User: Fold these one by one.
Assistant:
Number 1:
Amino acid sequence: MYPEGLKYNEEHTWLKLEGEGLGRVGITTYAQEQLKEVVFVELPEIGTAVSHMEPFGVIESVKATNDLYSPVSGEVVEVNEALQDEPGRVNEDPYGEGWMVVIKMTNPGEIDSLTSADEYRAQVGGENA
């Protein structure tokens, strides 16, 4: 349940590399399953600077409230505004319609600190984890 070709961090966010130094970010299946029903997502505004492994937003569920950690440093260039009205998209499709932000990376070398799908799967345990 962890797509190949994405990079993952230990705070359960993923990064999909896109053209021109851009990376699309969201939370993993593991994270949304731990949270249960997502009821609110607070994301930064376009133009906000984010830092590698620092909070960029907040996700709230019926179970808990957690910070969202950026897998890379850069500037937010796109925000998934649909999550304001439909935060449940994170549960339904965390790698598709439930994405959160697109970051224009300022230090692409940070990607090397992220893990592959296989490494992340081993970190969270189990084949389906």
Number 2:
Amino acid sequence: MDFPSSHSSPSSTLLHRDCLVGANPIIWSNDDFNELAGDVPLDTILREMRAAGFAGSELGHAYPRSATALAGALGRHDLRLVSGWHSTYLASRDLAAEEASFREHLSLLKTLGARVAIVAECTRCIHGTRDAALGSGSQPQPRLTETEWPRFIAGLKRLAAIAAAGETKIVYHHHMGTVIQAEEDLDRLLTAVPELWLLLDPGHLAFAGIDPVAVAEGYASRIAHVHLKSVRPAVAERSRKEGWSFCRAVTEGVFTIPGDGCVNFPALFDILAEADYRGWLVVEAEEDPVKVPALPKARIAREYVRKHAGV
């Protein structure tokens, strides 16, 4: 990867004042791999998240799924609910069951004021399998078959309609180790489902060998949610050459915070400002919290966003 460094000059155009900056609890406690500080108490996560200067949080495995309990936990730390990941299996499971599961998730989000629903197709996903080697670039593992694509597209159109009826945007999270990892698959998806919004995650794009700035430029009008993490290119390259799993790549530090790694965040912030982006910016740099303590890293990332995006 030879994308411009994130140490480029500060953004010359500030993002809209309606933009808010949140965090994902994966900075403190990993959702996929319990050995990576999976036992950190929710109160610790939320207290430190607020201390680092964030306005809201996405969901994590330690968070209650009762609206009353979740509102209480967030409220005690003056945090808003941003959104939360929802796994779909539209290519392989019954659509009625998928719709019911999505409606339940959407209800929780809406009750607490979140207006963006994150989805990622997890049919045959391998990112949570500790010993499954990741694909990269145009040869990812796994991929949808030609018979699965129509089911997947139809299902997403249905979920997008449900979200829109509830005044919520459904955003798609391209992700390493899932069927939407390669650039051609992401392009195919966004072309086939124009009512679908994009979650821009430059970390996952860069890890897959895709230029985040080019994706942001091409889909600027479709971006409705942003995750902020970067990639250490040397670690990503070694991961590809040696066939690492997603777990090993994360543990070895493939992801890092904005201001480090290879992602040109000032350029991304300029693109978002030009597109009049008014959504959340969510810091989500997962590393091993034992190796890299969460709170100092979160504070550095929050200050970087304040300096380079003006929010």
Number 3:
Amino acid sequence: MNKQLAEFVGTFALVFFGCGAAVVGGMGTGPTAVNLLGIASAFGFAIVAMAYGIGPISGCHVNPAVSFGVFVAGRMSATDMVGYWIAQVLGAIVAAGVLYLILSGKSAGWTGGLGQNGWGAGYLGEYNVVSAFVFEVVATFLFLVCILGVTHPFAPTGFAGLAIGLTLVVIHLVGINITGTSVNPARSIGPALVGVASNPERVAQLWLFIIAPLIGAGAAGFLFQKDGVLDIKKA
């Protein structure tokens, strides 16, 4: 398995399990329902699993914003970053497509949702665009601070995947009601494109879930440029 294939598989797993928990379990009632903690945990545990599964191959970015932050921090080349981006977006699209096929087999109750990110009237907590943008920038920044810190050679080995996964759980607990929680352009692109027929407005809102995470990730990467260690003096 090469790095790009590993990123494809890892991003597929993240979207399939995370968005799958939201749309399959989220549609249930009683003991089969998945609550907010369950959905957040599905995203986080998927990252933990992939961190140990493909981490030794590609670093388990499974997120264009993570790759961008790593690039800004000086830990990967622009060519590798673009290759990762392509693999990640394709993995997310294919995962959303598989979820679509599965959900299409439900006799009733499915409205075409695939866990798309969004904001505004009719979307979860109905937060406005400013709230959505600020959350995605701040959450992605903090996510990258964790990732760049725990993957540094000075950090204790063996626990990076667990720390990153648990951080993603916390981010989702805060953000699901605001934007559905993206902090990952690929995770947003896949479900939005595959589900465009039933939710075209989510494609129109994709710009935020591309730009805001890249800003947050770039800021974190900038702070880690000096010898790969967090440099608060730059802030």
Number 4:
Amino acid sequence: MHTDTERLSAVVARPPRSLRPPAFRSAAGHVPGSVVGSRYRLLHCCGSGPSMEFWHGRDVVTDRDVGLTVLAGPDRDVDVDEVFARTVWMCGMDSPALARIVDMVDTGSGGVVAAEWQSSCSLETAASVVPTRSEAARSARPLTEAMRTAHRAGGVLDLEPSSRLRVGAGGHLYVAFPGTLPSADRFTDVRGLASALRGMLRGATGVGAPAW
């Protein structure tokens, strides 16, 4: 039987574009091909939120792909040390819903949280190929459990905005771009998960537009 997850896995397996056109420049002034944190080359911007951007990048030292949460900018309007302090505990969590953190770098003008890159697709792409409500709910189950575990331990994942989440080859939602802002709390997690699931359900039912 050709399952919904098999269809989603086929989409995830498609290789992403390596670079956007050179004319692209993010709101913080970053361009594909530039290097942040002395070793991480920016390839493709996957989204942004207050004081941060999410990039598919490459570690020029190990030549491995990474997910990069790039914090602040020239004005350094976020406390990078506090973000790192609220994020580092995730290194001890073993969950398919969390990309493994490999590095955290203070760049002087901001910071970078680097995580392992997984074969994956955006929520918007996933919403276009997930045909049932039950498949969307199953996709969110590992992340829901990770959120509960984090909250019981006094931690916060920071699941907003939804662009920090992606869908892995196994068909599950996961945090591709970790980095907990000082303002994040448990309600941030609940809102972020609800927004992601709502977007997938809208894509599955064909009603309305995904809330990305």
